[in-house]
Specification:
The complex is a heterodimer of chains A (about 190) and B (about 210).
Chain A (H helix, E strand, L loop, with lengths): L10 H6 L1 E4 L11 H5 L1 H5 L4 H14 L4 H4 L9 H13 L5 E5 L7 H18 L2 E5 L3 H7 L3 E5 L2 E6 L1 H4 L5 H16 L4
Parallel strand pairs in A: 1-2, 2-3
Antiparallel strand pairs in A: 4-5
Helix pairs in contact in A: 4-6
Chain B lengths: L2 H7 L1 H35 L4 H13 L2 H8 L9 H26 L3 H9 L4 H31 L12 H9 L3 H28 L6
Chain lengths: ~190, ~210
Protein backbone atom coordinates (compact mmCIF):
# COMPACT_ATOMS: atom_id res chain seq x y z
CA UNK A 1 0.00 0.00 0.00
CA UNK A 2 1.39 3.40 -1.04
CA UNK A 3 4.56 1.63 -2.12
CA UNK A 4 5.09 -0.18 1.18
CA UNK A 5 4.40 -3.75 2.16
CA UNK A 6 1.49 -4.11 4.56
CA UNK A 7 3.68 -6.45 6.60
CA UNK A 8 6.06 -3.69 7.64
CA UNK A 9 5.10 -0.78 9.86
CA UNK A 10 2.50 -0.40 12.55
CA UNK A 11 -0.80 -2.28 11.96
CA UNK A 12 -2.72 0.40 13.91
CA UNK A 13 -1.42 3.12 11.60
CA UNK A 14 -2.15 0.96 8.56
CA UNK A 15 -5.75 0.41 9.67
CA UNK A 16 -6.25 4.13 10.08
CA UNK A 17 -5.12 4.66 6.49
CA UNK A 18 -7.81 2.28 5.21
CA UNK A 19 -11.44 3.34 5.39
CA UNK A 20 -13.40 0.33 6.59
CA UNK A 21 -17.11 -0.28 6.04
CA UNK A 22 -18.16 -3.49 7.72
CA UNK A 23 -21.09 -5.72 6.94
CA UNK A 24 -23.35 -4.93 9.90
CA UNK A 25 -22.20 -1.29 9.87
CA UNK A 26 -20.95 -1.56 13.45
CA UNK A 27 -21.66 2.02 14.51
CA UNK A 28 -20.96 2.61 18.19
CA UNK A 29 -24.40 2.66 19.85
CA UNK A 30 -23.21 5.00 22.64
CA UNK A 31 -21.82 7.59 20.19
CA UNK A 32 -23.83 10.18 18.29
CA UNK A 33 -23.58 10.41 14.50
CA UNK A 34 -21.07 13.22 14.96
CA UNK A 35 -18.92 11.18 17.36
CA UNK A 36 -19.09 8.09 15.16
CA UNK A 37 -17.96 9.92 12.05
CA UNK A 38 -15.19 11.83 13.81
CA UNK A 39 -13.75 8.68 15.40
CA UNK A 40 -10.56 8.32 13.36
CA UNK A 41 -9.87 12.10 13.15
CA UNK A 42 -10.12 12.22 16.95
CA UNK A 43 -7.83 9.21 17.31
CA UNK A 44 -5.42 11.09 15.04
CA UNK A 45 -5.84 14.20 17.24
CA UNK A 46 -7.05 16.60 14.59
CA UNK A 47 -7.85 20.11 15.85
CA UNK A 48 -11.51 20.42 16.88
CA UNK A 49 -12.33 22.99 14.20
CA UNK A 50 -11.04 20.79 11.40
CA UNK A 51 -13.07 17.87 12.76
CA UNK A 52 -16.30 19.91 12.71
CA UNK A 53 -15.69 21.04 9.15
CA UNK A 54 -14.89 17.50 8.04
CA UNK A 55 -18.01 16.00 9.65
CA UNK A 56 -20.22 18.63 7.98
CA UNK A 57 -18.58 17.94 4.63
CA UNK A 58 -19.04 14.18 4.97
CA UNK A 59 -22.68 14.38 6.01
CA UNK A 60 -23.34 16.43 2.91
CA UNK A 61 -21.43 13.92 0.78
CA UNK A 62 -23.56 10.98 1.93
CA UNK A 63 -26.73 13.05 1.72
CA UNK A 64 -27.71 13.50 5.37
CA UNK A 65 -28.83 16.90 6.67
CA UNK A 66 -26.37 18.08 9.31
CA UNK A 67 -28.87 19.90 11.52
CA UNK A 68 -31.14 16.89 11.64
CA UNK A 69 -28.68 14.03 12.08
CA UNK A 70 -25.56 15.37 13.82
CA UNK A 71 -26.69 14.56 17.36
CA UNK A 72 -28.77 11.47 16.74
CA UNK A 73 -27.78 8.07 18.03
CA UNK A 74 -27.56 5.05 15.70
CA UNK A 75 -30.79 3.52 17.08
CA UNK A 76 -32.62 6.65 15.90
CA UNK A 77 -31.61 6.01 12.27
CA UNK A 78 -33.02 3.76 9.56
CA UNK A 79 -30.89 0.94 8.11
CA UNK A 80 -30.01 2.96 5.02
CA UNK A 81 -29.10 6.03 7.08
CA UNK A 82 -26.87 3.93 9.31
CA UNK A 83 -25.10 2.54 6.29
CA UNK A 84 -24.45 6.10 5.06
CA UNK A 85 -23.04 7.13 8.43
CA UNK A 86 -20.86 4.01 8.24
CA UNK A 87 -19.51 5.15 4.88
CA UNK A 88 -18.96 8.70 6.19
CA UNK A 89 -17.05 7.30 9.17
CA UNK A 90 -14.85 5.21 6.86
CA UNK A 91 -14.06 8.28 4.74
CA UNK A 92 -13.44 10.63 7.68
CA UNK A 93 -9.65 10.75 7.67
CA UNK A 94 -9.58 10.76 3.86
CA UNK A 95 -7.95 7.33 3.52
CA UNK A 96 -6.51 6.45 0.10
CA UNK A 97 -8.23 3.05 0.16
CA UNK A 98 -11.77 2.17 1.13
CA UNK A 99 -12.46 -1.44 2.15
CA UNK A 100 -16.12 -2.48 2.10
CA UNK A 101 -17.06 -5.88 3.50
CA UNK A 102 -20.42 -6.90 1.99
CA UNK A 103 -21.70 -3.34 2.33
CA UNK A 104 -25.05 -4.05 0.72
CA UNK A 105 -25.57 -7.51 2.23
CA UNK A 106 -28.19 -6.58 4.82
CA UNK A 107 -30.45 -4.63 2.44
CA UNK A 108 -33.53 -5.86 0.59
CA UNK A 109 -33.13 -6.16 -3.22
CA UNK A 110 -34.86 -2.86 -4.07
CA UNK A 111 -33.00 -0.75 -1.51
CA UNK A 112 -29.88 -2.60 -2.56
CA UNK A 113 -30.21 -1.51 -6.20
CA UNK A 114 -30.85 2.05 -5.06
CA UNK A 115 -27.84 2.14 -2.75
CA UNK A 116 -25.66 0.51 -5.41
CA UNK A 117 -26.55 3.28 -7.86
CA UNK A 118 -25.82 5.86 -5.17
CA UNK A 119 -22.54 4.14 -4.49
CA UNK A 120 -21.49 4.32 -8.16
CA UNK A 121 -22.18 8.04 -8.07
CA UNK A 122 -20.13 8.40 -4.87
CA UNK A 123 -17.29 6.39 -6.37
CA UNK A 124 -17.10 8.76 -9.36
CA UNK A 125 -16.89 11.78 -7.07
CA UNK A 126 -14.34 10.29 -4.65
CA UNK A 127 -11.77 8.93 -7.10
CA UNK A 128 -10.45 6.45 -4.52
CA UNK A 129 -9.39 2.85 -4.67
CA UNK A 130 -12.34 0.90 -3.31
CA UNK A 131 -12.18 -2.78 -2.44
CA UNK A 132 -15.57 -4.44 -2.12
CA UNK A 133 -16.05 -7.91 -0.72
CA UNK A 134 -19.16 -9.57 -2.09
CA UNK A 135 -20.64 -13.00 -2.74
CA UNK A 136 -22.83 -11.72 -5.54
CA UNK A 137 -21.35 -12.15 -9.00
CA UNK A 138 -23.85 -9.69 -10.46
CA UNK A 139 -22.81 -7.04 -7.93
CA UNK A 140 -19.15 -7.60 -8.75
CA UNK A 141 -19.85 -7.33 -12.49
CA UNK A 142 -21.92 -4.18 -11.98
CA UNK A 143 -19.58 -2.27 -9.67
CA UNK A 144 -16.07 -3.60 -10.29
CA UNK A 145 -13.28 -2.40 -12.56
CA UNK A 146 -11.34 -5.49 -11.58
CA UNK A 147 -12.75 -8.68 -10.12
CA UNK A 148 -10.57 -10.83 -7.92
CA UNK A 149 -11.71 -14.32 -6.96
CA UNK A 150 -10.56 -15.43 -3.54
CA UNK A 151 -10.71 -19.06 -2.46
CA UNK A 152 -9.61 -20.22 1.00
CA UNK A 153 -7.64 -17.03 1.58
CA UNK A 154 -5.74 -17.06 -1.73
CA UNK A 155 -6.33 -14.94 -4.82
CA UNK A 156 -7.04 -17.47 -7.59
CA UNK A 157 -7.94 -15.12 -10.41
CA UNK A 158 -8.05 -11.43 -11.36
CA UNK A 159 -10.21 -10.31 -14.27
CA UNK A 160 -11.72 -7.38 -16.09
CA UNK A 161 -15.52 -7.62 -15.83
CA UNK A 162 -15.79 -8.27 -19.61
CA UNK A 163 -13.40 -11.24 -19.39
CA UNK A 164 -14.86 -12.68 -16.20
CA UNK A 165 -17.57 -14.84 -17.80
CA UNK A 166 -15.01 -16.56 -20.05
CA UNK A 167 -12.60 -17.50 -17.23
CA UNK A 168 -11.46 -21.12 -17.10
CA UNK A 169 -9.98 -21.24 -13.60
CA UNK A 170 -12.03 -23.89 -11.69
CA UNK A 171 -13.32 -21.80 -8.73
CA UNK A 172 -14.27 -18.92 -11.02
CA UNK A 173 -15.86 -21.37 -13.45
CA UNK A 174 -17.99 -22.73 -10.61
CA UNK A 175 -19.27 -19.21 -9.86
CA UNK A 176 -20.02 -18.68 -13.54
CA UNK A 177 -21.87 -21.99 -13.83
CA UNK A 178 -23.98 -20.94 -10.85
CA UNK A 179 -24.87 -17.61 -12.48
CA UNK A 180 -25.79 -19.35 -15.75
CA UNK A 181 -28.01 -21.80 -13.88
CA UNK A 182 -29.87 -18.92 -12.19
CA UNK A 183 -30.32 -17.23 -15.55
CA UNK A 184 -31.84 -20.42 -16.96
CA UNK A 185 -34.27 -20.73 -14.05
CA UNK A 186 -35.48 -17.20 -14.65
CA UNK A 187 -36.27 -18.27 -18.23
CA UNK A 188 -35.45 -16.65 -21.53
CA UNK A 189 -35.45 -12.85 -21.66
CA UNK B 1 -41.59 1.59 75.80
CA UNK B 2 -42.63 1.20 72.18
CA UNK B 3 -40.33 1.10 69.17
CA UNK B 4 -40.81 4.73 68.14
CA UNK B 5 -39.90 5.97 71.58
CA UNK B 6 -36.86 3.75 71.58
CA UNK B 7 -35.73 5.16 68.23
CA UNK B 8 -36.34 8.71 69.44
CA UNK B 9 -34.38 8.19 72.63
CA UNK B 10 -31.44 6.46 70.99
CA UNK B 11 -31.35 8.30 67.68
CA UNK B 12 -27.77 9.45 68.24
CA UNK B 13 -26.43 5.94 68.75
CA UNK B 14 -28.48 4.60 65.86
CA UNK B 15 -27.23 7.36 63.57
CA UNK B 16 -23.67 6.72 64.71
CA UNK B 17 -24.00 2.98 64.01
CA UNK B 18 -25.61 3.69 60.64
CA UNK B 19 -22.69 5.90 59.65
CA UNK B 20 -20.23 3.18 60.69
CA UNK B 21 -22.24 0.74 58.65
CA UNK B 22 -22.18 2.96 55.58
CA UNK B 23 -18.44 3.43 56.02
CA UNK B 24 -17.77 -0.32 56.22
CA UNK B 25 -19.89 -1.04 53.15
CA UNK B 26 -18.55 1.95 51.22
CA UNK B 27 -14.89 1.10 51.69
CA UNK B 28 -15.51 -2.58 51.02
CA UNK B 29 -17.36 -1.76 47.80
CA UNK B 30 -14.64 0.61 46.57
CA UNK B 31 -12.11 -2.13 47.20
CA UNK B 32 -14.27 -4.77 45.51
CA UNK B 33 -14.83 -2.58 42.43
CA UNK B 34 -11.13 -1.73 42.22
CA UNK B 35 -10.25 -5.44 42.24
CA UNK B 36 -13.34 -6.91 40.60
CA UNK B 37 -13.57 -4.78 37.45
CA UNK B 38 -9.99 -5.50 36.30
CA UNK B 39 -10.55 -9.19 37.08
CA UNK B 40 -13.77 -9.09 35.06
CA UNK B 41 -11.92 -7.57 32.11
CA UNK B 42 -9.30 -10.29 32.45
CA UNK B 43 -11.96 -13.01 32.46
CA UNK B 44 -13.52 -11.53 29.30
CA UNK B 45 -10.14 -11.28 27.57
CA UNK B 46 -8.68 -14.64 28.57
CA UNK B 47 -11.49 -17.19 28.77
CA UNK B 48 -9.15 -19.84 30.17
CA UNK B 49 -8.80 -17.68 33.29
CA UNK B 50 -12.54 -17.57 33.85
CA UNK B 51 -12.67 -20.96 35.61
CA UNK B 52 -9.99 -20.23 38.24
CA UNK B 53 -11.06 -16.63 38.86
CA UNK B 54 -14.81 -17.15 38.95
CA UNK B 55 -14.28 -20.43 40.79
CA UNK B 56 -12.21 -18.67 43.45
CA UNK B 57 -14.79 -15.91 43.87
CA UNK B 58 -17.51 -18.55 44.03
CA UNK B 59 -15.76 -20.40 46.83
CA UNK B 60 -15.36 -17.15 48.80
CA UNK B 61 -19.10 -16.68 48.42
CA UNK B 62 -19.87 -20.10 49.94
CA UNK B 63 -17.90 -19.55 53.16
CA UNK B 64 -20.34 -18.70 55.94
CA UNK B 65 -19.78 -15.06 56.82
CA UNK B 66 -19.26 -15.58 60.53
CA UNK B 67 -16.59 -18.21 59.74
CA UNK B 68 -14.90 -15.90 57.23
CA UNK B 69 -14.61 -13.14 59.84
CA UNK B 70 -13.07 -15.74 62.12
CA UNK B 71 -10.63 -17.01 59.50
CA UNK B 72 -9.31 -13.51 58.93
CA UNK B 73 -8.60 -12.87 62.63
CA UNK B 74 -5.07 -14.41 62.66
CA UNK B 75 -4.03 -12.76 59.37
CA UNK B 76 -1.21 -10.27 60.04
CA UNK B 77 -2.10 -6.55 59.66
CA UNK B 78 -5.70 -7.41 58.75
CA UNK B 79 -6.30 -9.07 62.09
CA UNK B 80 -4.98 -6.08 64.02
CA UNK B 81 -8.22 -4.16 63.71
CA UNK B 82 -11.77 -5.39 63.50
CA UNK B 83 -12.71 -2.85 60.82
CA UNK B 84 -9.99 -4.20 58.52
CA UNK B 85 -11.27 -7.74 58.90
CA UNK B 86 -14.81 -6.60 58.21
CA UNK B 87 -13.88 -4.60 55.12
CA UNK B 88 -11.74 -7.42 53.70
CA UNK B 89 -14.45 -10.02 54.22
CA UNK B 90 -17.19 -7.81 52.80
CA UNK B 91 -15.08 -6.98 49.74
CA UNK B 92 -14.50 -10.68 49.20
CA UNK B 93 -18.25 -11.32 49.20
CA UNK B 94 -18.90 -8.44 46.82
CA UNK B 95 -16.34 -9.69 44.32
CA UNK B 96 -18.29 -12.42 42.52
CA UNK B 97 -21.23 -10.40 41.15
CA UNK B 98 -18.87 -7.61 40.08
CA UNK B 99 -16.44 -9.88 38.24
CA UNK B 100 -19.23 -11.87 36.63
CA UNK B 101 -21.20 -8.85 35.41
CA UNK B 102 -18.14 -6.98 34.14
CA UNK B 103 -17.12 -10.02 32.11
CA UNK B 104 -20.69 -10.55 30.87
CA UNK B 105 -20.99 -6.90 29.86
CA UNK B 106 -17.77 -6.94 27.85
CA UNK B 107 -18.46 -10.29 26.23
CA UNK B 108 -21.91 -8.99 25.32
CA UNK B 109 -20.62 -6.09 23.22
CA UNK B 110 -21.79 -6.53 19.61
CA UNK B 111 -19.18 -8.35 17.55
CA UNK B 112 -19.68 -5.91 14.66
CA UNK B 113 -18.96 -2.96 16.94
CA UNK B 114 -15.75 -4.53 18.18
CA UNK B 115 -14.67 -5.44 14.67
CA UNK B 116 -15.38 -1.90 13.48
CA UNK B 117 -13.30 -0.51 16.35
CA UNK B 118 -10.35 -2.71 15.41
CA UNK B 119 -10.77 -1.99 11.72
CA UNK B 120 -10.77 1.76 12.39
CA UNK B 121 -7.34 1.36 13.97
CA UNK B 122 -8.19 1.69 17.65
CA UNK B 123 -5.63 0.21 20.02
CA UNK B 124 -6.68 -2.52 22.49
CA UNK B 125 -6.62 0.06 25.25
CA UNK B 126 -8.81 2.49 23.29
CA UNK B 127 -11.26 -0.28 22.45
CA UNK B 128 -11.51 -1.19 26.14
CA UNK B 129 -11.82 2.35 27.50
CA UNK B 130 -13.90 3.99 24.76
CA UNK B 131 -16.03 1.12 23.52
CA UNK B 132 -16.21 -1.98 25.70
CA UNK B 133 -16.35 -0.43 29.18
CA UNK B 134 -18.88 2.32 28.32
CA UNK B 135 -21.10 -0.25 26.59
CA UNK B 136 -20.96 -2.68 29.51
CA UNK B 137 -21.38 0.03 32.16
CA UNK B 138 -25.01 -0.69 32.99
CA UNK B 139 -24.39 -4.45 33.26
CA UNK B 140 -21.44 -3.70 35.52
CA UNK B 141 -23.60 -1.39 37.66
CA UNK B 142 -26.22 -4.14 37.99
CA UNK B 143 -23.49 -6.35 39.48
CA UNK B 144 -22.35 -3.59 41.83
CA UNK B 145 -25.96 -3.08 42.89
CA UNK B 146 -26.47 -6.74 43.78
CA UNK B 147 -23.14 -6.77 45.61
CA UNK B 148 -23.98 -3.62 47.58
CA UNK B 149 -27.33 -4.89 48.80
CA UNK B 150 -25.69 -8.18 49.76
CA UNK B 151 -22.91 -6.38 51.60
CA UNK B 152 -25.25 -4.12 53.59
CA UNK B 153 -26.85 -7.27 54.98
CA UNK B 154 -23.66 -9.18 55.70
CA UNK B 155 -22.07 -6.12 57.32
CA UNK B 156 -24.44 -6.54 60.29
CA UNK B 157 -22.47 -9.68 61.15
CA UNK B 158 -19.26 -7.65 61.28
CA UNK B 159 -20.32 -6.56 64.77
CA UNK B 160 -19.51 -10.09 65.92
CA UNK B 161 -15.79 -9.33 65.58
CA UNK B 162 -16.25 -5.86 67.05
CA UNK B 163 -16.24 -3.85 63.84
CA UNK B 164 -19.28 -1.82 64.86
CA UNK B 165 -22.14 -0.90 62.58
CA UNK B 166 -25.82 -1.68 62.91
CA UNK B 167 -25.06 -5.29 63.84
CA UNK B 168 -24.16 -4.02 67.33
CA UNK B 169 -27.84 -3.52 68.11
CA UNK B 170 -28.79 -6.87 66.66
CA UNK B 171 -26.22 -8.84 68.63
CA UNK B 172 -26.99 -6.94 71.81
CA UNK B 173 -30.69 -7.50 71.25
CA UNK B 174 -30.12 -11.22 70.71
CA UNK B 175 -28.08 -11.49 73.91
CA UNK B 176 -30.71 -9.61 75.93
CA UNK B 177 -33.69 -11.19 74.15
CA UNK B 178 -34.84 -7.66 73.32
CA UNK B 179 -36.74 -7.31 70.06
CA UNK B 180 -36.63 -3.53 70.08
CA UNK B 181 -32.86 -3.59 70.13
CA UNK B 182 -32.79 -6.09 67.27
CA UNK B 183 -35.15 -3.91 65.25
CA UNK B 184 -33.07 -0.81 66.02
CA UNK B 185 -30.32 -2.50 64.00
CA UNK B 186 -32.41 -4.40 61.48
CA UNK B 187 -34.71 -1.60 60.31
CA UNK B 188 -31.99 0.96 59.48
CA UNK B 189 -30.01 -1.83 57.76
CA UNK B 190 -33.02 -2.72 55.62
CA UNK B 191 -33.64 0.93 54.80
CA UNK B 192 -29.97 1.34 53.84
CA UNK B 193 -30.20 -1.65 51.52
CA UNK B 194 -33.34 -0.25 49.89
CA UNK B 195 -31.79 3.19 49.41
CA UNK B 196 -28.62 1.72 47.90
CA UNK B 197 -30.71 -0.49 45.62
CA UNK B 198 -32.83 2.46 44.49
CA UNK B 199 -29.93 4.86 43.86
CA UNK B 200 -27.83 2.32 41.96
CA UNK B 201 -30.92 1.29 40.01
CA UNK B 202 -31.40 4.89 38.90
CA UNK B 203 -27.75 5.05 37.80
CA UNK B 204 -28.11 1.75 35.98
CA UNK B 205 -31.06 3.01 33.94
CA UNK B 206 -29.36 6.35 33.34
CA UNK B 207 -26.36 4.61 31.77
CA UNK B 208 -28.32 2.03 29.83
CA UNK B 209 -26.74 2.05 26.37
CA UNK B 210 -29.16 2.68 23.54
CA UNK B 211 -29.89 -0.55 21.74
CA UNK B 212 -29.25 -0.40 18.03
Amino acid sequence: MEGRSTLEGDPIELRRRIGYVIQEVGLFPHFTVEQNISLVPRLERWPEQRIHARVAELLQLVGLREAEFLHRYPHQLSGGQRQRVGVARALAADPPILLMDEPFGALDPLTRAEVQAEFQDLQRRLQKTIVIVTHHVAEALLLGNHIGVIDAGALVGLYRPKDFMQATEPVTAAYIANVRMLEKMEGPG
Amino acid sequence: MNLLEYFARHHREILQATLEHVELVGIAMLLAVAVGVPLGVLVARRPWLSKPILGGANIAETIPSLALFGFLLPVPWLGDRAERIAVAALALYALLPIIRNTAAGITGVDRAVREAARGMGMTDRQILLQVELPLSFSTMLAGIRVATVLTVGIATIAAAVGAGGLGEFIFRGLAMVNNQLILAGAIPAAVLALIADFLLGVCERRWQPARS
